[in-house]
Design brief:
140 residues, 434 Repressor (Amino-terminal Domain), 2 domains
Length: 140
């Protein structure tokens, strides 16, 4: 059971976090689960002090590192990404072509994996779908 105590300094809250879960590499799923509990607890609070924010930032980085190493995400082709975005927005290839001023034949070739997107096309698609340009050409 967690008890709240009046602390002499805001740094005491940080030291309490370190005692509960030291900032060390996460090596197991159990470590990850414990780290997630602390992250959930901290993100549910409204007013973290600077020490707690730093702790949360570092713990999040450790979690991301573990998940990247243990559960890598395979790259997805531009064709798959574009098809998903078109479906999610509920538009046709013709509508996308009109909105982005990209030839419908080009969009069709990208969807079939026969063509890659240019930087300009990526920019227009990103604006159209409201996503960052890094969504396209995902690389490891």
């Amino acid at each position: 059971m967690k008890t709240k105590r009046k602390v002499g300094s805001r740094r005491d809250a940080y030291l309490e976090l370190i005692q509960r879960f030291p900032l060390r590499p996460i090596r197991t799923e159990e470590d990850l689960d414990r780290a997630m509990e602390i992250v959930d607890e901290l993100t549910d609070r409204d007013n973290l002090d600077e020490w707690e924010k730093d702790y949360l930032d570092v713990l999040s980085d450790l979690m991301e590192r573990y998940e990247t190493e243990q559960h890598p995400i395979e790259p997805v082709s531009d064709a798959v990404i574009l098809a998903h975005l078109i479906e999610a927005k509920g538009i046709t290839q013709a509508e996308l072509a009109r909105e982005t001023k990209i030839a419908e034949s080009t969009i069709s070739e990208v969807l079939r994996g026969k063509r890659t997107l240019t930087r300009s096309q990526i920019g227009r698609l990103a604006r159209c779908f409201g996503v960052g340009p890094t969504v396209f050409h995902f690389k490891n």
